[in-house]
Amino acid sequence: MSTTLDRPAMVATAPILSIVVPCYKERANVRPLVAALEAALDPTLRGAWEVIFVDDDSPDGTTTEIRTLAAQDTRVRGLRRVGRRGLSSAVIEGVMASSAEFVAVMDGDLQHDETRLAPMLQAVRSGSCDIAVGSRHVAGGDNDGLSNAWRHRLSDGGIRMAQAMLPVRLGDPMSGYFACRRDYFDEVTPRLSAKGFKILLDLILSARTPPRVVEIPCHFKQRAAGESKLDALVLVQFIAMLLDKAVGGLLPTRFIAFAVVGATGVAVNILVLDLARYGGLSFSKAQLTGTLVAILVNFALDNSLTYRDRRLTGARFWLGLLFFIVVCSAGALANVGIARALFIAHRGWGPASAAGAVIGVVWNYAVSSTLVWRRK
Questions:
Q1: Which residues, 6+ apart, have CB-to-CB distance to 308 below 8 Å?
Q2: d(Cα 366, Cα 22) in Å, to the nearest integer?
Q3: Structural domain ending residue among the three candidates 231, 264, 293
Q4: Mean pLDDT over residues 21-35, rounded?
Q5: In a shared domain, residues 264 and 226
Q6: Ordered strands of the 131-135 beta sheet
Q7: How far is CA 180 from CA 37, 52, 90, 92, 278, in A?
Q8: CATH code of the domain in which 212 resides
Q9: Residue 5 lies inside a defined structural domain of this protein
Q10: What's the pLDDT at 2?
Q11: Within this chain, do residues 295 and 347 fall inside the same structural domain, yes or no?
Q12: Residue 142 DSSP code
């Protein structure tokens, strides 16, 4: 019997460049992005590229669209992640699935200028840098694609915070558009926090030695379809990642995020307390009201952010809220008890209060992780 295939053999060109695209609910942008990449890269790479979409189980059929296109174009690949969320971890999985010598990361919303990929790749291939960044904040670049003044302020604030920690000079550390050698990414990967949305910043802060960075001017375009994923919760994740790097990874990123959310709850408690007192409530009733509101806010934020990968829904949401109230109440008692004991031991108001607060946060985090948001 003949072993010859009925159809002619297809010779695939080994990719020089893998473009990793983390995405969530971007079905409408899949085909336009691949077409844009083809127009931008084929003149120089002649098909020696691939795009790896990493989809966090989008409910809009993004994975189906990727698979349909991949059946027609061997340069298109897709990874569907179930039960896992997050841009940074999606990028890491996409890069680890690549065998190309060079990798690039870009968003799936068509806002990154695909024509900048060729000069970014050239900068890395020449050996003049370790990372080439598509930058909105150098001469020739712009940030016009940010949809409103709030997003501009959020981006500018994040840039200032990031620049204060960076070991290299970088005008756009918040960029999600960059290229590097895959082996460079491989070397840094074990030290990445894999949390949040700013994988470039994580990559630079996790390197053993400051990387050589080149910024390529980039036009940040308006979103054509889909919806932005940027919200206030992203800022909390960003702060948690910076704190994680500041303490050298000694504390879990999830614990840092939990503490940041807890600080938000303290601010809410104080605000509600003042409003309730002005409304004529007694101090005790005002304090109770502020505490309850703070617990509700903390639970909502932790459920959406800190434990996003274990998010509670339906009946489990309400049962989790009940457990969370009990946990926080016990944490408050531990806080007061430790603080009182230290105060009696003449440790002073400040140290006693701080120690009580630390014990309370650690208790709330430990019990919440194992009881409220336990792994399924």
A1: 85, 86
A2: 31
A3: 231
A4: 94
A5: no
A6: 76-80, 49-55, 17-23, 102-105, 178-181, 131-135, 213-217
A7: 18, 16, 17, 13, 57
A8: 3.90.550.10
A9: no
A10: 40
A11: yes
A12: B
Q: Is 228's pLDDT higher than 90? A: no
Together in a domain, 261 and 193: no
Q: What is the DSSP letter of 8?
A: -
The pLDDT assigned to 77 comes to 96
pLDDT for res 257: 76
Q: Are residues 148 and 263 in the same domain?
A: no
Element (H, E) at 188: helix 182-188
Weakest mean pLDDT among 43-57, 182-196, 229-243, 283-297 = 229-243
Give domain status of residue 7, yes or no: no
pLDDT score recorded for residue 225: 64
pLDDT tens profile 82-134:
978 888 899 999 999 999 999 999 999 999 999 999 999 999 999 999 999 99
Number of domains in the chain: 2
In-domain check, residue 87: yes
pTM: 0.69
Average pLDDT, the chain: 80
What's the CA gap between 99 and 10, in Å, rounded?
Answer: 19
Pair 58, 85: CB distance under 8 Å:
no
Name the domain boundary from 200, 231, 262. Answer: 231
CA distance 82 to 100: 25
Burial class (CB in 10 A: 0-12, 13-18, 19+), 236: buried
Report how far residue 306's alpha carbon sits from residue 265's, in angstroms, rounded to the nearest whole number: 14
Hey, what amino acid is at 80? Answer: R
Say yes or no: 164 and 265 in one domain. Answer: no
Residue with more model confidence, 310 or 235: 310
Boundaries of domain holding 259: 253-372
- For residues 29 and 137, state if they share a domain: yes
Q: Look at 228 and 223; give whichever has higher pLDDT.
A: 223
CB 241 within 8 A of CB 202: yes
